Amino acid sequence: MFINNQKLITCILPKGICRDVLKSLKEEKGIITANMNTARGLGKLTPLAYRGVGEQTEKELLTVTVSGKDADEIFGFIYDEARIGRPHGGLIYMTNLDRISAYSLPEDLPEEE
Amino acid sequence: MSKREITVLTDVSLITCIVQRGIADTIVKAAQEAGAQGATVYYARGEGVRERLGILALAVEVDKEVINVVVAKDQADRILERMYIAGDLDTPGMGFIYLTPLEKAATYIPREIAEKLERDEAGAKSAAGSDQ
Q1: A70: nearest Cα among A92, A51, A52, A94
Q2: Which residue of A has its CA nearest to B8?
Q3: What's the Cα-to-Cα distance from A78 to each of A52, A73, A82, B8, rounded to whole Å?
Q4: Is pLDDT of B104 > 80?
Q5: Which chain B residues have a beta carbon less than 8 Å from that of A95?
Q6: Which of A66, B30, B90, B119 has a Cα at 20 to 30 A from A74?
Q7: What are the tens digits of pLDDT across the range A14-53?
Q8: Looking at residue B94, what DSSP letter applies?
Q9: What mean pLDDT do residues B99-127 have?
Q10: Distance CA B15, CA B13 (A)
């Protein structure tokens, strides 16, 4: 029912990237325990910042739970897929989770269009 | 594995603050003045004490703003306190704030800053070695 030794990976991404990363996670890594949310980013370093005065920009928030043993690999995978290592590419971080519930989908579930 | 080298940050914490809608900008401004580089804000719906506070439970806004700020560990306490004060979080029903340690984080770091970090780290290691 519950699983131990899990990690939560969170990404703050520029608008328009998250859906592709979710797709890659599902197709290439078989990960379905991922969620996406929309957010606004405020900061001194946003693309719209002017002379150090921040403007808000649209962001997407990606959260993924993964097992502890795969966590570093998935962390690197998302970093590459979301192209975080470029200016204004976003941010990724990982936290420890004590316990999570098991999650699965029905086998005959049709693909999303 | 990752196709390129990732500069991983380890001494970082996440501050999460949940407040009534419309207050986040004030709190983010306070966090930036205390040293935070930026923040991410999204909306949520809150339930709980709201129903028991204020006249007809209308005083506390049902719509919430959730603020995420990633900060260096050595700055975390100061920024947390400033956000707490800016949001009047000592008033019942205003919201709450918490600090989560992050195992690691990564983002774009300009080459010159990454090199400076490496030099500082090497310097700290050699100083620690000479002390022993």
Answers
A1: A94
A2: A93
A3: 29, 9, 6, 14
A4: yes
A5: 14, 100-103
A6: B119
A7: 999 999 999 999 999 999 999 999 999 987 766 555 555 5
A8: S
A9: 86
A10: 7
Report field, pTM of the whole predicted structure over 0.95: no
Q: Indicate the length of chain A as a whole number.
A: 113
Among A41, A86, A94, select the one facing B102 at the smallest CB separation: A94
Q: Which residue numbers of A have CB closer than 8 Å to B's CBs?
A: 7, 12, 37-46, 54, 59, 61, 73, 75-77, 79-80, 84-96
What domains are defined for chain A? 2-97 (3.30.70.120)
User: What is the spatial distance between Cα B12 and Cα A110, in angstroms, rounded to a whole number?
Assistant: 41
Angle at which helices B73-86 and B24-33 cross, to 10°: 140
Q: What are phi and psi of B49, to 5 degrees?
A: -70, -20
CATH class for the region spanning B8-131: alpha beta
Q: Establish, for the pair of chains A and B, how many residue pairs have beta carbons separated by less than 8 Å.
A: 90
**Are A42 and B41 inside 8 Å of each other by CB?**
yes
Residue pointed to by tokens 């920024």? B79
pLDDT in tens, A59-95: 999 999 999 999 999 999 999 999 999 988 999 999 9
B18 CB within 8 Å of a chain A CB: no
Residue type, A37: N
B38 burial class (0-12, 13-18, 19+ CB within 10 angstroms)? Answer: buried
Instruction: Give the integer Cα–Cα distance in Å for B108 and B4.
Output: 12
